[in-house]
Design brief:
This protein is about 45% helix and about 15% strand. The protein has about 325 residues and is an alpha/beta fold. Helix 2 packs across helix 16 and helix 3 packs across helix 4. It starts with a helix and ends with a helix.
Length: about 325
C-alpha cells in the first residue's frame, strides 16, 4: 500500500498498457545504487518498510512497487494478466520512467519468481539480484503439485505444497476474504512451526481459516502493523494475490518460457540467496539445491528465523544487502 504507508515517497504511474502501479521511490545519494524491492504473498510494499527506511537512511535509492493484484496497484481478476513476461515488462517500464539503467534486484517469496524472469528478459537492467526465501526459478518449471507433495512428504515428513491445492480452488479468495484475521494469523504465524503443522499439509490451511483460528501476532509485527496489513488486503481482496499461484499452476507462462534459449535459462548475474532455518514452506534445502544447479555466480547466507526474513531479521538482512552490493560494485 505504497500511497498510504509511504505517502511522501510514493507515486502512481499509468503504464503503456493502461495498468496502474503504485510504488515507493527514493532517489539515491551520489553514485549509490538503487534497490528494486519485489514483495511476495500475501504482501505489498509495506512489508519492505524496515528496508526502505534503512536503505534511504544510508543514501541508497529504492523502487518498491505494490505488485499486480496488491495494495494501490491495479488488481485484474483474469488469471492470464499475471504472466511473468507481462509483469516483467511493467517493472522495466517503471525503471524507464525513473531513468534507472541498472538496479540491484531484491525479491522475497513470489517476488523472487518475478525477479527471476526479469533477470531473463531484462538482464541488462541489473547489477545483481538477491533472492530471499525463494531461489532463482528457472524458466520451464512444471508445477505438478501432486508430485511436489509426494516428494516433499517423503523428504521432510509432510507435503510442503499442500496449501497450493487450497489456493488453486475456486472458492479460496472468498474464504480468505471472509476470514482476514485467521488468514493473517496463518500466513504471519506466532511460531514458524505452524506452517509445518497447519499451512503445508493437505487441507490444513482451509481448516485453519474456515474455523476462524487466530493466534497472537509474532513479536516482529505490532497490532497496528497487522491491522494495516489486513486493510491493504481488504482493498481488493485475495483474488489478485491468489492469481500468482493459479497462473503458474495453469501453465500461463509456458509459451513465453519456451521462447527463452537454453543457455539463457541459467542465471549469470551475481546472486545472493538468503534463506532461513525455520522456513517450513519454501524450505532452505530446496532453494539451495535449485540455486546450485541454475546459478553461475552464487553466494548463500542463512539466517535463524522463519520465512519472513525482511520482517524478522531486518537489521541482519540490511547488512547482507549492503555487503553483497558493495562487493559487486567494487568488482565492476
Amino acid at each position: 500500500m505504497a500511497l498510504t504507508a509511504f505517502p511522501e515517497l510514493s507515486k502512481l504511474a499509468s503504464l503503456q498498457d493502461d495498468t496502474k502501479y503504485a510504488y515507493v521511490h527514493v532517489t539515491p545519494s551520489g553514485s549509490k545504487p538503487t534497490f528494486l524491492l519485489l514483495h511476495g504473498f500475501p504482501s505489498s510494499s509495506f512489508d519492505w518498510r524496515h528496508q526502505i527506511v534503512r536503505l534511504k537512511g544510508a543514501g541508497y535509492g529504492v523502487i518498491a512497487p505494490d505488485l499486480l493484484g496488491y495494495g494501490d496497484t491495479d488488481k485484474p481478476v483474469e488469471v492470464e494478466k499475471y504472466a511473468f513476461k507481462a509483469m516483467s515488462g511493467h517493472i522495466a517500464e517503471i525503471l524507464d520512467k525513473e531513468g534507472l539503467q541498472k538496479v540491484v534486484g531484491v525479491g522475497h517469496d513470489w517476488g523472487s519468481g518475478l525477479l527471476s524472469r526479469l533477470a531473463n528478459y531484462h538482464t541488462e537492467r541489473f547489477l545483481a539480484i538477491i533472492t530471499i526465501s525463494v531461489s532463482y526459478l528457472e524458466p520451464g518449471i512444471v508445477y505438478d503439485l501432486d508430485a511436489f507433495n509426494v516428494g516433499t512428504a517423503q523428504a521432510f515428513g509432510y507435503p510442503t505444497f499442500g496449501y497450493w491445492k487450497f489456493f488453486d480452488s475456486d472458492d479460496a479468495a472468498e474464504v480468505l476474504d471472509r476470514n482476514p484475521k485467521s488468514t493473517t494469523s496463518l500466513m504471519y504465524p506466532e511460531g514458524p512451526e505452524t506452517w509445518m503443522t497447519d499451512l503445508c499439509p493437505l487441507g490444513g490451511a482451509r481448516t485453519w481459516i474456515t474455523s476462524g483460528t487466530a493466534t497472537a501476532h509474532p513479536s516482529w509485527i505490532t497490532e497496528d502493523e497487522a491491522a494495516l496489513h489486513e486493510c491493504i488486503l481488504a482493498q481488493g481482496g485475495y483474488t489478485g494475490p491468489l492469481n500468482w499461484y493459479k497462473s503458474v499452476i495453469k501453465g500461463i507462462n509456458d509459451v513465453d518460457d519456451a521462447t527463452i534459449e537454453p543457455e539463457q535459462k541459467y542465471l549469470t548475474l551475481p546472486n545472493m540467496l538468503v534463506v532461513s532455518t525455520k522456513d517450513f514452506a519454501t524450505r532452505p534445502e530446496l532453494q539451495e539445491m535449485r540455486s546450485r544447479e541454475w546459478v553461475k555466480d552464487l553466494r548463500i547466507e542463512t539466517l535463524d528465523c522463519g520465512h519472513w526474513i525482511p520482517l524478522e531479521r531486518s537489521e541482519e538482512l540490511f547488512a547482507l544487502l549492503e555487503d553483497f552490493t558493495t562487493a559487486v560494485t567494487e568488482k565492476n
